[in-house]
Specification:
Keywords: Coiled coil. The protein is an all-alpha fold and 105 residues long. It is 83% helix and 0% strand.
Length: 105
Amino acid sequence: MTQNNQHQQPLQHAIDTADSAILQAQDAEHKLQVAISQANPQSIQSAQAALTQAKLQVQEAHEQLQTYNNEQFGQQIKQTMEQLSQATQDLDINQNKFRTPKQIR
């Protein structure tokens, strides 16, 4: 029984990392929405940087979970993988929604 729990610790860590990445993505999306509503260029740039960072975290979490995507753990991580995919799509939509125009010199 102890051996089984020890075996699942890396999986639980991967799931926790994924959950954290999903929350980070949601927070970054919220920051962008607030920045756009305030029309604050500095806040928008900061929010876009947060989106980029969140996207990297989501991708890393997805890759980490992918190593456990097998017969033994497949059902256990399926929902988290779907949430990560949805977070990636949401981040892409938000990144493409608002682009800071380049300054013309």
